[in-house]
Amino acid sequence: MSAHDTAERQYTLDRELQAYISECRGKEHSESFLISVLHKVQARYGYLSQEHMQEVAELLGVPASTVSGVATFYHFFRLQPQGKYKVSFCLGTACYVKGAPAIIDAFKEELGIDVGETTKDGLFSLEITRCLGVCGLAPVVMINETVHGKLTPASIPALIAGIRKKEEAG
Ligand code: FES
Prior knowledge:
Distance between the termini: 49 Å
Strand order of the largest sheet: 2-1-3-4
Largest sheet: 4 strands, mixed
Oligomer: single chain
Number of helices: 8
Helix content: 40-55%
Bound molecules: FE2/S2 (inorganic) cluster
Number of strands: 4
Strand content: 5-15%
CATH class of the largest domain: Alpha Beta
CATH architecture of the largest domain: 3-Layer(aba) Sandwich
């Protein structure tokens, strides 16, 4: 890229984020701010697009491979837009010991996606969350604003089918 191209570069990240990244770049060990920058980008846009990750790399002065490496390593970063139904798995202690990992596996199997992904029809996305404060109902899954408690892996297909049916009915 020539100096001229650099001067012409138009970023799609909003001005506030660009200003924050410039501020980080001016500090010592600017690359150590990468996770914080990615959190802010995700909070603003809901996920980390390829374009935004490229812009973060340029603005922060770190290799694009480092940005995508960090974004894919941490499960709390999303690389796709969220689904209409955001399924959040509680992995707090109570839910974990009461079988949350098996619940997560049941959703993954039923939907054919991994945590951090969105189904092709844009309906479901999966993510991990912290304790939701309703440990007595463990294991708990929140789907948008609704809490589903005392789940078993066997109950998951019917739960998903119920949502799909509701969607089809419009
Ligand atoms: S540990 Fe899951 S709701 Fe508290």
